[in-house]
Amino acid sequence: MTDPSASAAARRPGEQALTALGLAAPDPDPADASPHSFPGGGRWRTEIPSCEGPEALAVVLKESSRLDVPIHRISQGSGVWMLTDAEITEMVEATAERDIELCLFTGPRGTWDIGGSTRTDSGGAGLRARGHAAVAGCVEDAVRAGKLGVKCLLVADEGVLWTLHRARAAGLLNAETTLKLSALVGPVNPASYAVYERLGADSINVPSDLTPDHLTEIRRVSAAPMDMYIEAPDDLGGYVRMYEVAELIRRGAPLYLKFGLSKAPGIYPYGHHLRELTLATAKERVRRGRLALDLLARHGADGDMAPLGTRLPGTLNRFEISS
Length: 323
Known about the structure:
With 323 residues, this protein is an alpha/beta fold. Helix content is 36%, strand content 11%. It has ten helices and eight strands. It has an eight-stranded parallel beta barrel, surrounded by six helices. Helix 3 (54-67) packs parallel to helix 10 (275-298) and helix 8 runs parallel beside helix 9.
């Protein structure tokens, strides 16, 4: 296991100049640091989200090579059902060549069906799967994607998560399939985070407005990998937290650093009418990743990256599955 005290020794933003001016911040409390890491070592991995098809994927892979941005996972937001078998196969093969995990979203969601409550000020039930038919659609997507070689599925509903976890345990999905909880239903307290872990989540998105103290609270009850937008899309708040990356890792490890993009129009569900925007934003997300990684390096906090090619979450706590 990586020593969490290593990140505590990293230089913090502006530290030397502020100390010289008598404005030094208090020393980090070692008790705040997460004691957890990824299996196989390392405290952080990277993710490029919103990669909506083979063409966008090719842009991401080319740009990541040009800018030397290491990638552990690439995720898509429109859904399995918005891709043909040939497109999914092309994405599976391209990511496998680079030993990158590919994660595709499952099925119908509340914002894309006939339910009107999602368009109210309260948002209604959000992205959750409304009714048996929506759950069935998510399962259909999961099984289809699995047969085509996809080993990571993105989920936005507690019932769908538990159902896919049961399907995995029953052998209906590959045993090494990982289930990733969407940021749009992400937990905001340690109790709910632990529940999602027990429902089968292997990687849990949390909203990007959680404070470092909130991350510490979560890490006192769960070691399940955490996903967090370092820069969040506008529909998730548009938060930009690059200068906090080292502290977010120190508090939240094991942590996926997600390089989103604020001030960009939405592209879900993707189609060729959004092609130029999608390719441009895919390229810029990689550049944002380079900016964040450069910042980590300048602060001496870039040494705890998990090995490339690693994807499994380690041993996690689950609810018992009754027969």
